[in-house]
Amino acid sequence: METIDAILEYVVFENEQNHYIVATFSQTDTYHKFTATGIVRDVSEDMEYTLTGDYVHHPKYGEQFQIKSAVRKLPTNEKQIVRFLSGERFNGIGKKTAMEIYESFGDNCLELILQDDSILYQIPSLNQKKINTIKKGIQEFSSFNESYVQLIKMGLSDAKIELLQKHYDNPVEVIQKNCFQPFYEVNGFGYKTSVSLANTLAMEAMDSRRQDAYICNVCRDLVMNSGNTFLSLASICENTKVLSKQQIIEAIQRLKKNDILEIQNDRIYPFHLLSDEMTISNDVKDHIFKVDQIDESVLDTKIREVEFSLNIEYDDKQKDAIISFFNHSFSILNGGPGTGKTTVVKGILNICTQLYPDRTIQLCAPTGRASKRLSQLSECDSRTIHSLLQWDLHSNTFGKDENNKIDCDFLIIDEFSMVDTHLFCQLLKALPLRCRILLIGDENQLESVGPGKVFEDLIDSSLLPVVHLTKIYRQANGSGIVTLAKEIREDQKCSFDDGVTFIEANSFEILERICELISQQDIQILAPMYKGVCGIDEINKMMQELMNPKSKYKKEIKVGQVVFREKDKVMLLKNMAEEDVYNGDMGTIIHIEKTKDNAIIEVDFGNQIVPFDHDFLYFLTHAYCISVHKSQGSEYENVIFVVDSNSTYMLEKRLIYTAISRAKHHLYIIGNQQLFENQVKLKQKRIRQTSLKENLGGKL
Fold first, then answer.
1. How many CA atoms lie within 13 A of 694 on its CB side?
2. If we measure between CA atoms, which residue out of 611, 164, 574 comes closest to residue 392?
3. 566, 570, 541, 539: which is closest to 551 by C-alpha?
4. How far apart are CA 682 and CA 654, in angstroms?
5. Per-residue pLDDT tens over the stretch 107-127
6. Burial of 427 (0-12, 13-18, 19+ CB in 10 A)
7. What is the pLDDT of residue 286?
8. How far is CA 394 from CA 189, 357, 401, in A?
9. Which of these, 693, 699, 700, 698, lies nearest to 277 by C-alpha position?
10. CA of residue 71 relative to chain centroid, distance
11. H or E stretch including 487?
12. CA 32 → CA 24, 29, 446, 462, distances in Å?
């Protein structure tokens, strides 16, 4: 490892997102010019840096200096000093003032000011405001560099250092006091990173701070894996091997004292899920208020007008849903596929705009695809819940909250079974008390990925009016799909006809059967698990070779074991609100551009073309085959659902029901029919533990 002082002469390439640069430097003492690549977070040409790293030989571009760390030095010549003092860090200090400081104190002026800032009073033209700006700017620069060097020595990456420096005024002091504090407080700073710091700092193996973080991490993992909002002491002990029961109890008490875990009635809540459940309970009750009743005859007339304009006839349950919406401030519409939920929403929107022309109506859904589908079917604007709340990806915070409410009089949320405890809590906080709410969902679908079963708890609480739609109306091609969904819901014998085909195949025949079907039509493949001979990963590899084989006319890039190729079908794994694309959105790779130090993948999502230039596997995955969880909130013309004996433990009733109800025209189930029929009879193995229903049952 070498350390070099060098001046950055010219930036060839800079990635502003991850601060990766390719640049020409000139070594300060020898004037040797060289190319360097790596992370430099405080980039400024003509400025001097202390670079740490190694010279490496690039097979195409020759010798390069690979930067491990780059620390910008205080300038020591006229040009650099004037540029530095008149830069962004020193608001209100121009080149004239900067030159005056240089002429007064010479090349070492910045170091002199850092040692004794009172010398600035020797310059008559400087007022107190400018003196304070200069003092603060130089001190912050110096402390930033010193902190950066210390954090690099602790083994932290630039990305982690940036997180810390954004969150703490003095991150080194925080880490030296308790290196696990960022694990609790900084979004994106994980447990493993904190453990690595603890090892570097030689923290004792049984230090109570280690124990506390370990127990907190166990609790967080348990609720994310189980969907529970709380844990018992027994379940924590069962999943903790290195500590005694007494040590676990003591750690939990310390975590409670520091407001990291919450405890009520011997239930232990990580992620402040108790507070979230209490907030939901209180806010739901606050949104239950008496509304001005609409004359029954007026509402009946309006419903008949909608029926005429849409050329439909609502059944009694559907009319009840419309009437319930207008007679209550908070209501629920529950029903499976083909039961007419969207038709009811169209009627509600039509009548609402007539009766309340000056009120704001907002539609939303938990995913981008569900929101777009709601917008298309209702012919009204819809947004994702995250977009509505102005969610910030990097800080994991929301712009809309109890102090900055959403301007909304009526809120309709579709696919509500997908909404977890924390997200619904944040949404309720941001809604004005005047807002009336309608939740739409299917209680038989998979629960949210995050902890909780909010939709089920709200229905079971009997606190809100609920209309259950059961009659099936989708009688065109594919009506057998909604029939099968109904049979699964009602524990009846399954039938496979009119749009549903079951293809019997063992594990080693499934891929071959998929190939035969794919060659005939456009189909979305769904599977329960990623690994295995016919898991999602293997199916995607096979499908890529079948649908988009390697070609000299198509560029590709290999990331780990994954190959991304132009014309590949891919899915987004993260919300990108600034680009108006969201987790679960599908697109096609239209262009791959490889430079000597970077690569860009451009994806067409239909409404947006989005470039990705780093962390490809973090943002993208192949989408020829996707998980059932990822498909929730979406519909596809034709679906293949894989029922493999290797995934028996995942084939629960809710997952099967969700998978088969994604298809609109034709559903192909490939696998073991006896396994399918056995698994749909099984009740849910793991019922989520929550206290929301209990809280909602309290007095109003």
1. 8
2. 574
3. 566
4. 10
5. 888 888 888 889 999 988 899
6. buried
7. 95
8. 12, 38, 17
9. 693
10. 33
11. helix 479-489
12. 10, 8, 63, 77
- Check the CA dihedral 347-348-354-357 and report its sign: negative
Close Cβ partners of 454 (under 8 Å, ≥ 6 residues apart) = 280, 416, 419, 420, 421, 424, 448, 692
Continuous segment of H or E residues that includes residue 247: helix 245-257
638, 422 in Cβ contact below 8 A?
no
CA 139 – CA 115 distance, rounded (Å):
10
DSSP element (H, E) containing 343: helix 341-355
SS3 assignment, position 224: helix
The H helix count followed by the E strand count for the chain is 27, 27
- State percent of the chain over pLDDT 70: 97
With both helix axes pointing from N to C terminus, report the angle between 479-489 and 653-660 in degrees, rounded to the nearest 10: 170
- Coil, strand, or helix at residue 38? strand
Of the candidates 454, 455, 439, 458, the one whose C-alpha atom is nearest the C-alpha of residue 331 is 439
Strand, coil or helix: 405: coil
Among 360-374, 475-489, 603-617, whose mean pLDDT is lowest?
475-489
Which residues on adjacent β-strands are paired with residue 70? 51
% the chain with pLDDT above 90:
54
Calculate mean pLDDT across residues 207-220: 96
Predicted confidence band at 498 (pLDDT cuts at 50, 70, 90)?
A: confident
C-beta of residue 659 within 8 angstroms of C-beta of residue 526: yes
Degrees to nearest 5, angle at CA 376 with 464 and 497 = 80
Cα(71)–Cα(361) distance, rounded to whole angstroms? 53
d(CA 670, CA 407): 48
CA distances from 48 to 6, 77, 121, 146, 165 (A): 5, 10, 28, 15, 22
